[in-house]
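Hi U.,

Before I forget, here's the chain from the pilot set. I'm dumping it here mostly so it's searchable later in email.
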Amino acid sequence: MQTLRIVLVQNYTRTPGGGGRLRIRRRERAEDGGDGLPPGPIRLASPYDTDARWSAKRDLFWNGFKPHVSETCHPQADGGRPAQPNVITNVATTASTLPDTKALEPIHQALDRRRLLPARHYLDSGYPSADLIVSSAQAYAVALITPALLDTSRQAKAQEGSAAHDFTIDWDNQQVVCPAGKTSTTWNDVVQESMAKTVVSFAALDCISCPSKDHSTSARSNRRRLSLQPRELTTMSW
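Structure:
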């Protein structure tokens, strides 16, 4: 009964109607003018399996979980067929809303326990990050062979304003220069999502007068900020 109640509350809301009655209506996304929906990771998608979640990847939508299958990969013989058959070495099942990058470390741990770690691990672009490329080599001696994930910032997607890779970083003097030639005013070492990062900010007066301001930042403070990974990881990813 509690599960059914949660499903009802997450999908419907009650508002005052005419004649002192309550009006029941379906919840819609806040950006569509509705009352808002719970975040995907906590929204129950089925009263029969409370761990199942709705998820989407490009044009694919599903309700359930996400499998991660690892298998051997052998070079092909002259006849066009693999010299040896591919063998599945690990299968991991995660919540459908869990990013692929969060699944990679447990996969390496499972392969390590079975002594099945590959020297080279071929992955699609959803799994790697600069941090994982370095840590996989250091902790497991595994080289990640994978395309780098594209810059997903608003500026890079729209191809307007200045994306992160357009800035020049002076690590020794702890300064960043933007494409317009302005120098950052603050350099703060912080911890974000359990990772060491550096947050760099520019002066509001410099950003307000910049012709590219509307495309470069939408912050209320009218100043551009960058969140940088450690030096060796930023150099690798840029």
